[in-house]
Write a structure and sequence with these properties.
This protein has 217 residues and is of the alpha/beta class. It folds into 2 domains: 1-137, Rossmann fold, CATH 3.40.50.10240; 138-217, 3-Layer(aba) Sandwich (Rossmann fold), CATH 3.40.50.10240. It is built from 5 helices and 12 strands. The chain has helices spanning 18-21, 34-41, 58-67, 82-93, 110-118; strands at residues 2-6, 28-32, 48-51, 70-73, 99-103, 132-135, 139-152, 159-164, 168-173, 180-185, 191-194, 200-215. Strands 1, 2, 3, 4, 5, 6, 7, 8, 9, 10, 11 and 12 form a 12-stranded mixed beta sheet that branches. Helix 2 (34-41) links the parallel strand 2 and strand 3 (48-51). The longest helix is centred in the middle third of the chain and has 12 residues, at 82-93. The relative contact order is 0.15. The mean pLDDT is 94.
Length: 217
């Protein structure tokens, strides 16, 4: 199954025409905190809503509790962000999930964006590394463990970046504008401003975790 997770980032950073096209996005929806309130406002009933809802009023919280089949209001979230809390419940309630698209996880505060980027390195979220993607108006972000992969170029995206989040061994970029052959990286680094040559791109590496970003200006 596929799930979509809306968290509470700025609406202005959501993909172009997101609200008008939200009904066409495949998969059920999960709302994290303010994201659950917005989903109801836009005509989507989340299958799961999680958060302390400190930014919502009593009427909005009551609406979420009534509309959602499973609503976890005011949970203990001392050690996690709203995004991480929602993903924790997704793993618990939907262990068979094969894709999770996350919207509203970028923009505004840099510390919150970095938390949403690096959560994949926490051991509890290891089962989601290859299943999660973060999408906003300018970027599509995916995560990969060691292996061989083929990427498809997204419409309107111009640039391609490979970002080792950990030490990485033998990174090979086979058919991009700028190629690499079995390059090791001992620390996180952003190999940015690469580009597709055709409609697909192939890469591989032996060890570590890599973030791949397709982006546009």
């Amino acid at each position: 199954m596929e799930l979509n997770l809306l968290v509470g980032g700025p609406v202005s950073d959501l993909p172009v025409d997101f609200i008008s096209k939200i009904q066409a996005i495949p998969g059920d929806w999960v709302g994290a905190d303010r994201g659950a309130v917005r989903l109801l406002k836009w005509g989507i009933k989340p299958v799961l809503a999680v958060g302390d809802f400190d930014s919502a009023n009593e009427t909005e919280v009551a609406a979420v509790a009534q509309a959602c089949p499973k609503a976890v209001i005011n949970p203990d979230k001392v050690d996690v962000t709203d995004t991480e809390l929602a993903l924790r419940y997704i793993l618990k309630e939907y262990p068979q999930v094969r894709k999770v698209r996350i919207f509203g996880a970028t923009g505004a505060r840099l510390d919150q964006f970095l938390a949403n980027l690096f959560f994949v390195l926490k051991p509890e979220f290891a089962p989601l590394i290859n299943k999660v993607e973060i999408i906003d108006k300018w970027n599509q972000i995916q995560f990969y463990t060691a292996g061989e992969y083929e990427l498809e170029k997204m419409a309107q995206m111009q640039y391609l970046a490979f970002i080792p989040l950990t030490a990485v061994q033998e990174l090979t970029l086979k058919d991009q504008k700028y190629t690499l052959e079995r390059q090791d990286f001992a620390y996180p680094i952003s190999l940015s401003s690469n580009e597709f040559v055709g409609q697909t791109s192939h890469f591989s590496f032996k060890k570590g975790v890599i973030c791949v970003v397709q982006s546009r200006d």
